[in-house]
Amino acid sequence: MNNHRRHASGFTLIEMMVTITLLGVLTMLAMPSFTTWIANNKVRTVSDSLQNGLRLAQAEALRRSRPMVFSLTNSAAPQSGLTAVADGSNWSLNVSKSSLDAGNVFVQAGVLSDVAAGVQVKGAAAVCFNAMGRLAVNSDTGVAGASCNTGSPTFAYDISANGSDRPLRVLVGLGGQVRMCDPARKLADSPDGCP
Length: 195
Fold this sequence. Notes:
Elements: H1 13-64, E1 68-73, E2 90-95, E3 105-111, E4 119-122, E5 126-129, E6 155-161, E7 168-172, E8 178-186, E9 193-194
């Protein structure tokens, strides 16, 4: 009779514990990179939402041939009650009060805080576009708190988050150009840099 034992293939308990320990160490080393990456993605998502809202405002001004007001607000339902505030957590787009329109007309709204929690937006309460899609001075927009009488040739919205190492800025130029840039880079050195 042959009393040879068969060797079972597989992992021993010690091999399994060493593998799990190494996996845990690698995960702990990668964790800071993941949290920074997630925070940077949140900043990018909010910046995209803000940029899209501003571009929509300009496009609607051209399409409707009416002045438009893009405003930041903390109202969750800006179509029923809107007060523009600087550094708001949502945005709203309205046809601005003009000689053709007695009051403002709600067009569309978007969210910023729900898109990515913990992201801060710093910027003006309102940006006004004229019927040609360019920045306009308008002190009587028909939207509470939205006055576009700064006379500034550009508007800037700075977007940042705790844990993010890459804040972004959304710029609106005098001609209505809307672009996103990285404030840590210079425009002369990189196409995504800020002026």
